[in-house]
Amino acid sequence: MARIAGVNIPTNKRVEIALTYIHGIGRTTASRLAAELGFPPERRVQDLTDAEILLIREKIDRELTVEGDLRRQNAMNIKRLMDLACYRGLRHRKGLPVRGQRTHTNARTRKGKAKPIAGKKK
């Protein structure tokens, strides 16, 4: 099992798909990486040599922000908004949708499980 950026990527999958197991690498980035390194699309991770895995690891370390660094960066961006007390920061702080969605109905993912309100029956 190959280990890239602190993640064990599956050996029986194609290189393009296996790279998407790393947080911060999607299908487009994975395809671009594989093409730049000269791997054919049908190449599987189990067929890679140690040198090729090292090549992938170095390219990702050099060019991309992934895993822990990316998570930390996102958390710092949200913390910055909350410290500024701007509208988006206040929405994050209250646990409400940030991007203008309605909250009268829906928004259950952000608001959490519905809480019953006493005395609402007619």
From TrEMBL:
PROSITE patterns: RIBOSOMAL_S13_1, RIBOSOMAL_S13_2
GO molecular function, one term: structural constituent of ribosome
Keyword Amino-acid biosynthesis attached: no
GO cellular component term of the entry, any: small ribosomal subunit
Region (Disordered): 95-122
Database matches in Pfam families: Ribosomal_S13 (PF00416)
Biological process terms in GO annotation: translation
Keywords (A to Z) from UniProt: Ribonucleoprotein, Ribosomal protein, RNA-binding, rRNA-binding, tRNA-binding
Taxonomic superkingdom: Bacteria
Function, in words: Located at the top of the head of the 30S subunit, it contacts several helices of the 16S rRNA. In the 70S ribosome it contacts the 23S rRNA (bridge B1a) and protein L5 of the 50S subunit (bridge B1b), connecting the 2 subunits; these bridges are implicated in subunit movement. Contacts the tRNAs in the A and P-sites.
Subunit structure: Part of the 30S ribosomal subunit. Forms a loose heterodimer with protein S19. Forms two bridges to the 50S subunit in the 70S ribosome.
Family of the protein in this entry: Belongs to the universal ribosomal protein uS13 family.
Name recorded for this polypeptide: Small ribosomal subunit protein uS13
Organism, scientific name: Sandarakinorhabdus cyanobacteriorum
